[in-house]
Amino acid sequence: xxxxxxxxxxxxxxxxxxxxxxxxxxxxxxxxxxxxxxxxxxxxxxxxxxxxxxxxxxxxxxxxxxxxxxxxxxx
Length: 75
Hints:
Elements: H1 11-19, H2 22-26, H3 32-43, H4 47-64
Helix pairs in contact: 1-4, 3-4
């Protein structure tokens, strides 16, 4: 299903694009809908900032995760 390139991004599209790594974001893709959504975000004054906000929140959440290493000791 092809998306309308003029329509704003849905919450699911924003979340999907925000989850991509920076290298994936800049590389050529094979999903035309994702590529259209990405192109729309790059040129839209509303969706571009929303995507940046999503990416920022996800980065902050990832930074809050710390691996817990514990050893169980049985006496």
